[in-house]
Amino acid sequence: MANVRRLTAADLPRLRQFWIDHWGGEIVVAHGEIFRPEQMDGLVAEDEGEWIAVAAFVCSGPECEVVSLDSLRPGEGIGSMLLGRVIEAARAAEAKRVVVTTTNDNLEALGFYQRRGFELTALRRGALEETRRLKPGIPQTGRGGIPLRDELLLELALPDGGR
After folding, report:
1. Fold type of domain 3-162
2. For the chain, how far is it from start to end, CA to CA, in angstroms?
3. How far apart are the C-alpha atoms of 117 and 26, rounded to whole Å?
4. Which of 26, 4, 2 is nearest to 15 (CA)?
5. Which run of H or of E encompasses 36?
6. pTM of the predicted structure, to 2 decimals
7. In a designed cystine with 127, which of 14, 120, 142, 151 is the match (CB 3.0 to 4.6 A)?
8. What φ, ψ does residue 125 adopt, rounded to 5°?
């Protein structure tokens, strides 16, 4: 069984390396904004000290944004568990919604979030061209050979401001 805990300042170098390994750089870019590990709140699921899943998020005002959610053991419910904990953190921060941005090629993420109550709220056509200016290593082609060009915003409303 995985142990879940909050990320600490001591985890920042490891989060940075995790992002390099899984996101192709030490930053994540969404909707034209650069996210850095030191700006993140987050959760990590560990198995005997090995990171098996990480959720990085930022809660500010009425919104809690999931910046990255990665499970190295898909199908075991670990990603769902971490997302549930992020939603709890959003409620504690009295956020009105939890949002996540993904790319048009990430069909797994689209299904994952929609199965958990998130709704598609926006399409940012051509957004990856701007993103590539901030993070040049992003490829032109994504998962399954799909041209990587758009961002999709999904949102989970939290009734009563998260309370």
Report:
1. Aminopeptidase (3.40.630)
2. 30
3. 30
4. 26
5. none
6. 0.90
7. 151
8. -65, 135
> What does the DSSP assignment read for the chain?
--EEEE--GGGHHHHHHHHHHHHSSS-EEETTEEE-GGG-EEEEEEETTEEEEEEEEEEETTEEEEEEEEESSTTSSHHHHHHHHHHHHHHHTT-SEEEEEEETT-HHHHHHHHHTT-EEEEEETTHHHHHHHHSTT--SB-GGG-B---EEEEEEE-GGGG-
Q: Which residues pair with 152 in a beta bridge?
A: 102, 123
Measured distance CA(29)–CA(39) in Å, rounded: 13
The H or E element containing residue 40 is none
Q: Domain map of the chain by residue range?
A: 3-162
Nearest to 102 by CA among 123, 75, 79, 74: 123
pLDDT digits (tens, 9 = 90+) for 8-67: 999 999 999 988 888 888 888 999 899 998 888 999 999 998 899 999 999 998 999 999
